[in-house]
Structure to design on (445 residues):
């Protein structure tokens, strides 16, 4: 079996169409097309709600709480577990596959020698006059781009992936294509903005004082972003920002669709596994936060869809709580390759064959405070709810069956005491979590 891995950056769970999470219009016909041809994991979660540690964990098979890689900071070379790891591309190359990567797949830990061909991403230039919004600064800006669509970097990387798929292949292939979109800044052609008239935009549901029952370490995660949220809302730009995010999602979907179409029109369709995922989620004002790097639903929930010819049923959804860490062992089993013994994850093959099978939650996500990296923040999401531990005396629990937006922290509610105690025991203890890697410098996008 060949493998086509598709990755989108910073795309949250809105494309799932869950009205409890977001009831607005989302235009993703190609992602929906893939979901209808395989299994859609509606409750998939990242191992870390930040680009580099999420991708490094996914591709290495080493969870951040075992590698110490928690943030977008250099230092992966000082992690023995990562130095000893074999990337998923390396596993396929070792097994005789040709490997190729186009766009944003890795971020700071890439084992470049394991790719036969690699074309990285670069940011598109800002439009003349940027920032285009009154709140814009740095990457936190949005508006129509001056480039034609074919000149944009994601479009060009899609072109390269398509060209590779159209080639004749003697050996099986592992091809990865990743969009930088919808990572900020949200600069895409005007036609994508036009899909979402402002008068039709639905903004996420927010409540005042949402952070009042959140522990101090949890509130600290929103530092630096809450002022931006206030500026967006105070200046009446919340709908404009949501419009730009949706427009950029639609653009990313279009590029993913072009690659999917190229596969479906090639001789490889019936012997190629397709995996689509997002590296983590994204806040647009929820919890008084913008972007990622929290342990709440908005930042931790990822998209995951898998199509395996001859194995997966058509158009099935799996509501079990799974992790992106489960992707590496899944691909190894599907392709008949012996995986490394150290992998932090479980093969999803039982769920691919029978999506309603029992599955103890693997949806664990971790983070540390940049100000006090010795703090090991961790959360688990399961059928019972969401449990978060910042420190032994700072925790949260949300009964998500009644509180989908995680508005009310129930950590002190005796009704949930047994559930909370059980979830506490299912995440690594603070003393078991790897010491964070040195926080010096910054990894380039």
């Amino acid at each position: 079996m060949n493998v086509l891995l598709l990755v989108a950056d910073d795309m949250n769970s809105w494309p799932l169409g869950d009205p409890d999470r977001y009831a607005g219009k989302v235009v993703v016909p190609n992602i929906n097309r893939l979901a209808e041809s395989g299994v859609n994991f509606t409750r998939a979660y990242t191992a870390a709600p930040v680009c580099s540690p999420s991708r490094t964990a996914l591709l290495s098979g080493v969870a951040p709480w075992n590698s110490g890689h928690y943030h977008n900071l250099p230092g992966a070379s000082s992690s023995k577990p990562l130095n000893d790891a074999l990337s998923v591309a390396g596993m396929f190359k070792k097994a005789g596959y040709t490997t190729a990567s186009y766009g944003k797949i890795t971020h700071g830990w890439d084992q470049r020698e394991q790719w036969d061909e690699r074309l990285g991403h670069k940011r598109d230039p800002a439009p003349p006059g940027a920032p285009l919004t009154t709140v814009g600064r740095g990457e936190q800006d949005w508006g129509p781009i001056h480039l034609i669509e074919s000149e944009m970097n994601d479009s060009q990387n899609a072109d390269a992936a398509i060209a590779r798929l159209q080639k004749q292949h003697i050996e099986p292939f592992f091809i990865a294509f990743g969009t930088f979109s919808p990572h900020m800044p949200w600069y895409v052609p005007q036609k994508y903005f036009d899909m979402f008239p402002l008068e039709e935009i639905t903004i996420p549901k927010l409540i005042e004082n949402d952070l009042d029952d959140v522990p101090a370490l949890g509130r600290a995660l929103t530092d630096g972003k809450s002022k931006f949220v206030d500026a967006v809302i105070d200046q009446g730009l919340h709908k404009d920002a949501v419009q730009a995010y949706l427009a950029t999602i639609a653009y990313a979907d279009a590029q993913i669709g072009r690659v999917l179409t190229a596969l479906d029109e090639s001789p490889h369709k019936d012997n190629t596994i397709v995996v689509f995922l997002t590296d983590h989620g994204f806040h647009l004002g929820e919890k008084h936060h913008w972007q990622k790097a929290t342990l709440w639903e908005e930042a931790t929930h990822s998209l995951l869809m898998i199509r395996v010819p001859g194995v997966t049923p058509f158009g099935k959804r799996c509501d079990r709580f799974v992790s992106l860490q489960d992707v590496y062992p899944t691909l190894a089993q599907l392709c008949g390759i012996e995986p490394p013994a150290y992998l932090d994850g479980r093969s999803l093959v039982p769920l691919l064959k029978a999506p309603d099978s029992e599955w103890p939650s693997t949806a664990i996500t971790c983070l540390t405070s940049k100000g006090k990296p010795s703090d090991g923040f961790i959360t688990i999401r399961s059928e019972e709810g969401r449990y978060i531990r910042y420190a032994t005396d700072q925790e949260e629990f949300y009964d998500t069956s009644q509180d989908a937006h995680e508005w009310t922290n129930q950590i002190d509610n005796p009704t949930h005491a047994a559930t909370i105690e059980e979830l506490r025991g299912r995440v690594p203890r603070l003393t078991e979590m790897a010491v964070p890697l040195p926080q010096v410098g910054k990894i380039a996008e």
Observations:
- Residues 2-356 form a domain with the Alkaline Phosphatase, subunit A fold (CATH 3.40.720.10).
- The chain has one domain: 2-356.
